[in-house]
Amino acid sequence: MKKVLLLLAEGFEFYEASVFVDVIGWNRLEGDHSTQLYTCGFTKEVGSTFGQKLVVDQLIEELDPDDFDALAIPGGFQEFGYFESALRPEISGLIKRFHNSKKMIASICTGAIAVAQSGVLTGKRATTYNLNPLRQQSLVNLGAILCMEPIVIDDNIITSWSPSTALDVAFALLERLTNKENVLNVKRLMGFKICQPNTLV
Amino acid sequence: MKKVLLLLAEGFEFYEASVFVDVIGWNRLEGDHSTQLYTCGFTKEVGSTFGQKLVVDQLIEELDPDDFDALAIPGGFQEFGYFESALRPEISGLIKRFHNSKKMIASICTGAIAVAQSGVLTGKRATTYNLNPLRQQSLVNLGAILCMEPIVIDDNIITSWSPSTALDVAFALLERLTNKENVLNVKRLMGFKICQPNTLV
Q1: Model ipTM?
Q2: For residues A76 and A12, is the Cβ–Cβ distance under 8 A?
């Protein structure tokens, strides 16, 4: 079983977290059954952007990164305390542990800022929310090479623009954990028409 | 402020709930600011399909439907107790109250079965998860006219096929609560390219 750790910083964006829950979950139930998702946060209940509260499986301080095969990082809004939480040294440390073990790190939107803060994006191609120059500048200031592409995969790290890219990031992670054929089957079951491999319409 | 009640039956599908959280939330923060979402369930903590636990704002037994302007109903998996919960008479009663007040009811995937169970789809055009004939048969048995279309809007009731239709259902609800121009702006901010009005690419 390949275990995905979903990192929920305070103020995480609910939709961007949900794509990992569903894609990994559909695969467990209806795909090749080889993946399982676990959530973590600083507190047992974590508040999302837009005020929902989720009960996490594990506290960050208690978990062992060696138990997991990939890290998934949704973005979030500054207005809901996302950066205050996501840029904490404990999260940077967690990201570095996954990176040093060459495990997949899949982030969406402003989640890239948390990845960059850890130092693992230095000299790597990456992107972040594309409609706010402040976010892009943060990424550059933290040493990444900014790419104006919706989804950027450099080595083991996925970064992306916005909620619109979220599903494709989750499917890209599933493809790295399983294979292309399996991803096409899961997409089909979730109702996405397959025109070309890996293209949602 | 237009208030949307998100109905979380046990075993609700996380992704299908998230589209309402995000679309209504983005509109509150970055759109015309006129909408707010509240969650409800039978218990303070509701388990989702794939095992996440969400803390709801209100218990179903305690809420007053007159406080809300629209009802949003994600689907869910039988394996996680969705139908046992979603077909309970308290939920049928809630749906009827919204319908009798001619308020919008927006459902996704198997959420349509809960809507049909309440009786409000009798003689109306509707759809549900399209890759399982059992779900479609349930809808017909409960009096609906089955339409093989991804999203069906009959009067005040929206039904749809699968996770792939979820975002469009949430945007359709937002359009009914605000207007088309506002929806296009929210879509743009969330990163969805606008080729034609109401077409996600």
Answers
A1: 0.95
A2: yes
